[in-house]
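This is your field. Please look over both lines of this record.
***
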Amino acid sequence: MNLAAEIALAHRLADAARAEILPHFRTPLDPEAKGDETPVTIADRNAEEAMRRILKAEVPQDGVVGEEFGAEQGRSGRQWVLDPIDGTTSFIAGRAIFGTLIALLVDGFPVLGLIDQPIQQERWLGVAGEGTTLNGKPVSTRHCRELASAAIGTTGPQYFSREEGDVFMALAGQTAHKRMVMGGDCYNYALLASGHLDLVCEAGLKLYDFAALVPVVEGAGGLMCDWHGEPLHAASDGRVLALGDPARLEDVLEAMGGHSH
């Protein structure tokens, strides 16, 4: 599958989103905002609109799914999946660990994924069958000899149901839990792809939250799956695992125990 044109298009989408997001970072509330609209809402909406305009002009036959403006059905079997600001809470708090997520799905499976961090100007690109890059240079996940030495990340306890939280803590308890990081959204998966984290475990993710992560993590030598070890696709339940070292999958699933069912 030659995706050269799609890769170029994804970069243009990320550039357009970046241009809309940058002016709003660490700014006070826009006085023209209506009701309780925060600057992030404006940045979110403007960034997604900018990306959708480009897609409508260049690939009108493709479907589009976005966090802010829902789904438009295409007729090509292909879908662009957009999350203009993944990590809204971090964005509002002035933390540069949010990102713009862009994915291309073919028949429901992600074949291209891009994670863009506008403030730090970092862009990870993953494409099926190719190695993942950060700003054009190859990156790879790191080996993890045993679960006990694994550094694990998750966005936060508030995103788990009580039962899911128990499963997460069962897993985290068998990792190097003093090195556990909280917060980070998509940025944790990018860091895992670059070899700085070993595991990410989350629940409640929507398609636009995880689609772009899969090609980035897997192109770097890692593995992404659901809590049963199955590949992620458009119909997945939003409980996701990312492993820097796929050799640890059995250990991870065992640590999660019968809990994950």
In short: The chain is about 30% helix and 25% strand. The two ends are 36 Å apart (CA to CA). The domain at 4-138 is CATH 3.30.540.10 (Fructose-1,6-Bisphosphatase; Chain A, domain 1). Residues 25 and 213 are 23 Å apart (CA to CA).
